[in-house]
Amino acid sequence: MHGTLLQKIIKATRHPKMAASAIQRATNRFLTDNRDYIAVVQAAVQDNKAFSTFKRHPGYRVVLEHVSSEDGQRYLDILRKDAPDFIDDIEKFKVNDLVGGPQTFPYSGVGQISPTTLRYMKVASDLRKLFGGDLGMSIAEIGVGYGGQLLINDLAFSMARYDLFDLVPVLRLAERYLESHVLNCAYRKLTLNQHLGKETYDLVISNYAFSELLSQTQRKYIQKVLASAKRGYLTMNSGTSKSYYQDDKLSLAELRALLPHFETLPEAPLTHPGNYIIVWGHT
């Protein structure tokens, strides 16, 4: 959950106090694993009809698939500048829109595509820009949604193994989703508790999810997954005084003491005033 969702809540709720209450309710639901979201996830795993349209379900869009058409255009503009070859091969990336019934929009020069797919492509473009065309053979992602970032990365890079970290129901949905496609890499599903913490990853990715965890869980992810990673790319919406998430999150100063030496970059496009990206191991 980030700036786009908050804007939708505020826009839909005209009274300021009601808007603040709606935001707090959305935040509380997310921080308790969002019962509505998990219910949609479980239904999508178990039921073919629910799986065919899960990306459109309001309970799912509260957490994922809420990238606006306008933000999609901003991602597309960046891709045209930073990764024109991705645009040339746009049809192969549209495979991410074939399953789950996402909302798509028409964009000049590329046709119908979901803005979420454009966001995943933009992240892949960032990874190539920061780390080159070789991300390494061992990749981990913290907070995986339905596995869309893995699918896009698998199309853009050569990877041997990709470890997915999330809640058990989410991992089951990611498995069903990814098994609907044919991948080049292999993947494993892991909860934090199932991970021994003895792996050294070539790269760890997290699109907002790590930053939204409570500090105790953040520390454990750092200890078991992030601290030994050769490279990292973490989109953050907590850690500073301007960040949306403030309560029980590691500060930027605490993160500097615990993570490998990193640089902060602006989020582009900026989806909330306090967002930023943590990167290390880049050239």
Tally of individual domains: 2
CATH architecture designation of the largest domain: 3-Layer(aba) Sandwich
- Name of the level-1 CATH class of the largest domain: Alpha Beta
CATH superfamily of the largest domain: Vaccinia Virus protein VP39
Going across the major beta sheet, what is the strand order? Answer: 5-4-3-6-7-9-8
The pLDDT mean sits at 89
Principal-axes geometry comes out as globular
Number of continuous helical runs:
14
Helical residue percent band:
40-55%
Q: What is the count of β-strands?
A: 9
SSE series: HHHHHHHHEEHEHEHEEHHEHEE
Give the low-pLDDT segments. Answer: 1-32
Largest beta sheet, briefly?
A: 7 strands, mixed
What gyration radius follows from the Cα positions, in whole Å? 18 Å
**Strand fraction:** 5-15%
Distance between the termini: 30 Å
The fold-level CATH name of the largest domain is: Rossmann fold
Structural class: alpha/beta
Notable traits:
single chain; 283 residues; alpha/beta; Rossmann fold; 2 domains; seven-stranded mixed sheet; two-stranded antiparallel ribbon; 14 helices; 9 strands; globular
